[in-house]
Design brief:
Blueprint (H helix, E strand, L loop, with lengths): L16 E2 L4 H11 L3 E5 L5 E6 H8 L14 H11 L9 H4 L6 E2 L5 H11 L3 E5 L5 E6 H9 L12 H14 L10 E6 L2 E6 L4 H4 L6 E5 L2 E3 L2 H12 L16 H18 L10
Length: 282
């Protein structure tokens, strides 16, 4: 289904916010619609930016944020922060003053594969869908990409693996090390540019608050995971607040390479000690 068109999976009924609305009004919109970001439009309805909870965090908390175009923050928590700290001034700014003016877009007839590439290349979790006249016709989120992947895909060319084949291989690798495959997971493991990393998925409100990405670097035949990351994961999993992770994006990897990557990750987790046997909950 990765060759299906974007218009088959996008949300056509798009919530937008006026660029002249206040940050507080935009935050209330995010909370009421249970979403983490919206396109910002001008008086003519043209998309002029994207407002997200990350933008609100900058205005409300004025603190550090992750180096990402589209990091996740909890809109409800931000509204509570405004109330607790009695700091209304930043939230009275206009959306135009804090929104991201970089609009990542895709056409409705583009393939889901191309949309996924754009998300991965720019580290974003949503794309606005614009027609040939630059008119907003939809929104595509990383959850929509996951839905497309879940529908399965034929085996990729040149020895690559389709998602279904990849899932079977991963089940075997996980089972061999005593792990169960989780049905609901808040992270997607990807191999990009020689690095192994996870990407937060939409739709997991509690897990999004974890607020970090797992990034590993290549060191010969092994991947190095920083102890703070593993410690943080251990605490979250011990409290049942998150699950850890599956490789859904097997396309383009050969069977041996996928087994090597998945096995290397699980070995690193096991070497950490306390996480062994707890990394994936059924």
């Amino acid at each position: 289904m990765f060759d299906a068109q974007v218009n088959a999976f996008m949300t056509a009924d798009v919530t937008t916010v006026s660029a002249t609305a206040t940050v507080r009004e935009a935050l209330e919109l995010l909370v009421s619609r249970r979403i983490s970001g919206v396109p910002a439009v001008d008086e003519a309805g043209r998309v002029v930016g994207v407002f997200s909870a990350t933008d609100a965090a900058r205005a409300v908390a004025a603190g550090p944020h992750r180096d990402s175009e589209d990091s996740f923050y909890d809109p409800m928590a931000l509204l509570q922060l405004v109330s607790l700290e009695r700091r209304p001034e930043p939230t009275e700014l206009h959306v135009a003053a804090v929104m991201s003016r970089t609009v990542r877009s895709v056409g409705p007839s583009a393939s889901m594969r191309e949309a996924a590439r754009i998300m991965a290349a720019h580290n974003v979790h949503r794309l606005v869908v614009l027609d040939e006249t630059e008119h907003l016709v939809g929104m595509l989120s990383s959850l929509d990409v996951c839905r497309a992947m879940a529908k399965g895909a034929p085996a990729a060319a040149a020895g690559g693996l389709g998602e279904d084949a990849g899932g079977a291989i991963l089940a075997r690798v996980f089972a061999a090390r005593g792990y169960a495959m989780a049905r609901n997971v808040p992270f997607e493991l990807r191999v990009q540019g020689g690095a192994l990393k996870t990407v937060h998925l939409d739709g997991y409100d509690a897990e999004r608050r974890v607020g970090f990405e797992l990034i590993t670097t290549e060191a010969g035949d092994r991947a190095e995971f920083t102890p703070p990351i593993l410690d943080a994961l251990e605490g979250k999993m011990a409290r049942g607040e998150c699950f850890l992770l599956l490789v859904d994006e097997a396309d383009g990897l050969g069977e041996a390479e996928l087994e090597r990557v998945a096995g290397r990750f699980l070995d690193a987790v096991a070497a950490h000690g306390k996480l062994a046997g707890e990394a994936v909950k059924p």
